């Protein structure tokens, strides 16, 4: 079968090969035919080494498709079912799951260390234990979440990561209050979803911050009340909040420098929500006096900060009701052969989300 493979960490292009085989099928597993997958910035971060991932590997974790076969012991799924890929499934038995914090379950991360593909030259890993830049993939049954028939594959793929992450940051983690002021730093697919989540929650002002003009324009279409470049952020803070700072600031870049900017633009007693996934050696610093004196809440948000199955259902309900716009988030579409063009579009900020159709 065909798949896009990164041979070594640090390479910036993928090679589309036709000699890849999905392996590991057996009890508790399902074989999926991927129909659509989104390109998420986490894929690029894994390719560059910012996020840890063994290589060679197949990127992609934001996918949807059909069940081809189910292993022994799998219940609730049948061949032909339409599903989205959950890259962080809950085991249901660990302490995090028992506390209701299923987004902190580590079972999915453990899968990332087991190759689920092979080539004549040896084993190939799937990013985050999945790897959706491929025609077929074998994953644990918990990674295959049934979707209603009226949800297109490309929409389901977005819900599988970026939309759930952004919406959940605003709704689950920060719990944005109606009438509040919000700033979102970083307006790619996750940032746009965060803006939509803040709008759903009833925020009065939503300021989008991004260096790319096309993304600022998109942010306005998705609910931002204004959009500014990073150089204009201080002026926006003064104008919108009279210099006090925003009630909520979301950092959706994954860098300590932008996290520090977010902290400084959060009002005293306000909330800084960290949504971007960054490098292990990139340290965010605050001094002990400001941490105590300003009483700003610093809230990391992992995969939307809530039960992902409930979050999927909520995203579908909001989409059906016309409360969020998911179709317009897909700005580019490519076939698998065009995956490197899609990577370039993401790196330059040209795209919000590219749908890879398989």
Low-confidence stretches: none
Q: How far apart are the first and last residues' alpha carbons, in Å?
A: 11 Å
Radius of gyration: 20 Å
Question: What helical percentage do the residues reach?
Answer: 25-40%
Strand composition percent: 25-35%
Counted by DSSP, the helix tally is 12
Q: Count the strands?
A: 19
Oligomer: single chain
Largest sheet: 7 strands, mixed
> What structural class do helix, strand and pairing data support?
alpha/beta
Residue-averaged pLDDT: 96
Shape: globular
Task: Please give a structural write-up.
Helix 5 packs parallel to helix 6 and helix 5 crosses helix 11. The mean pLDDT is 96. Strands 4, 6, 7, 10, 11, 18 and 19 form a seven-stranded mixed beta sheet that branches. A six-stranded parallel beta sheet has the order 14-13-12-15-16-17, sandwiched between helices. Strands 3-8-9-5 form a four-stranded mixed beta sheet, with no helix packed on it. It has helices at residues 41-48, 95-98, 107-111, 153-159, 162-173, 189-201, 213-221, 233-241, 256-264, 288-294, 308-320, 339-348; strands at residues 3-5, 15-17, 21-22, 29-38, 57-58, 62-70, 82-85, 117-119, 122-126, 136-140, 144-146, 181-185, 205-209, 226-228, 246-251, 266-274, 297-300, 330-335, 353-357. The protein is built from twelve helices and 19 strands. Helices cover 30% and strands 26% of the residues. It is globular. It is an alpha/beta fold and 358 residues long.
């Amino acid at each position: 079968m065909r798949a896009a493979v990164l041979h070594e960490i640090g390479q910036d292009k993928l090679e589309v090969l036709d000699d890849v085989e999905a392996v590991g099928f057996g009890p508790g597993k399902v074989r999926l035919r991927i129909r659509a997958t989104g390109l998420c910035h986490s894929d690029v971060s894994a390719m560059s080494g910012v996020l840890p991932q063994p290589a060679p590997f197949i990127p992609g974790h934001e996918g949807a498709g059909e069940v081809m076969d189910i292993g022994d012991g799998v219940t609730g799924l049948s061949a032909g079912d339409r599903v989205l890929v959950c890259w962080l499934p809950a085991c249901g038995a660990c302490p995090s799951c028992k506390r209701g914090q299923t987004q902190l379950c580590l079972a999915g991360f453990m899968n990332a260390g087991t190759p689920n593909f092979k080539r004549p030259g040896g084993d190939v890993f799937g990013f985050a234990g999945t790897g959706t830049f491929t025609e077929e993939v074998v994953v644990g049954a918990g990674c295959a979440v049934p979707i209603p028939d009226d949800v297109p594959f490309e929409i389901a793929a977005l819900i599988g990561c970026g939309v759930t992450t952004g919406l959940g940051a605003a709704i689950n983690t920060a719990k944005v209050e109606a009438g509040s002021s919000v700033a979102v730093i970083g307006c790619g697919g996750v940032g746009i979803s965060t803006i939509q989540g803040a709008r759903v929650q009833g925020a009065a002002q939503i300021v989008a911050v991004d260096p790319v003009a096309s993304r600022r324009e998109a942010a306005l279409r998705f609910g931002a009340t204004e959009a500014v470049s990073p150089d204009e952020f201080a002026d926006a803070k003064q104008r919108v909040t009279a210099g006090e700072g925003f009630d909520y600031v979301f950092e959706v870049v994954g860098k300590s420098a932008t996290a520090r900017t977010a902290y400084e633009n959060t009002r005293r007693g306000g909330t800084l929500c960290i949504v971007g996934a960054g490098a292990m050696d990139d340290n965010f610093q605050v001094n002990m006096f400001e941490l105590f004196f300003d009483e700003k809440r610093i809230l990391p948000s992992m995969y939307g900060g809530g039960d992902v199955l409930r979050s999927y259902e909520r995203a579908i309900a909001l989409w059906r009701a016309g409360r969020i716009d998911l179709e317009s988030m897909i700005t580019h579409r490519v076939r698998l052969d065009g995956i490197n063009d899609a990577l370039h579009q993401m790196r330059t900020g040209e795209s919000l989300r590219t749908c890879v159709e398989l």
